[in-house]
């Protein structure tokens, strides 16, 4: 079997799997972008966060996945919570996914060191498939679900989540695409996803902070876990390692350019069957934090910004 034919088959296999089990974005910097997965996040801050991320997956693999994310969220005391915005664009082979989502979170202070937030998100999902460029093994004998022409469809969706933040700890759980089960999923109907995460910020001493985090995603019986450990020196330099179950290992390097601006780069390498056909995945991000009203800020330690 030639390399070209093998890559064509692999690309088709990835695309076929994606048709009926499309995932939410997979990013190495998940600890910085929980707002993408959980609409409750904005309720547990009094600052304003704006972030941008780009991920190129499986470099060297033809038509490999890529992700562009822009997300922002802010706590607003007058509405007793916060609001969030997520815009994402994913490319995979002959398919493009674009999502726009807005959210509101209601936050309740539990005590001087902890808050609990409940959020609801509403969004619009667009899927475009280049059906004319898809190649089937038997082009003249395909079932009715096969896409033979370029197809573009929109679908609205709902998401909900809850998050606890305090005592140096953040714990969150959320569900996306509430109305869509896996059995009836299509290239244009993303199935229901479940997300859970835990983050803890530990000040080892005045110079070093260690922040481990665990992120779990699931589609019914299909689950994947990711572990990330970040070490921050002098509130400026960040180094980290990551492990994604049955998928990849990687590392991250970041720097707080200013008190409010942070940039970082992550690299992860696939440890599975695709490892021989690509040279890993690259990811870069920028995050800017605007200070909220000082007189209304809640002073408790949070690993939100790994501060």
Strand order of the largest sheet: 1-2-3-4-5-6-7-8-10-11-12-13-14-15
CATH topology call: Porin
Structural class per helix/strand content? mainly beta
Rg, Cα atoms, Å: 20 Å
Largest sheet: 14 strands, antiparallel, barrel
Summarize, please.
This protein has one helix and 15 strands. With 307 residues, the chain is mainly beta.
Please tag this protein with its features:
single chain; 307 residues; mainly beta; Porin; 14-stranded antiparallel barrel; globular; disordered N terminus
Q: How is the secondary structure organized here?
A:
Blueprint: H1 3-20, E1 48-56, E2 66-76, E3 81-92, E4 95-111, E5 114-130, E6 150-166, E7 169-176, E8 193-200, E9 202-203, E10 208-219, E11 222-233, E12 237-244, E13 248-256, E14 261-270, E15 281-290
Antiparallel strand pairs: 1-2, 1-15, 2-3, 3-4, 4-5, 5-6, 6-7, 7-8, 8-10, 9-10, 10-11, 11-12, 12-13, 13-14, 14-15
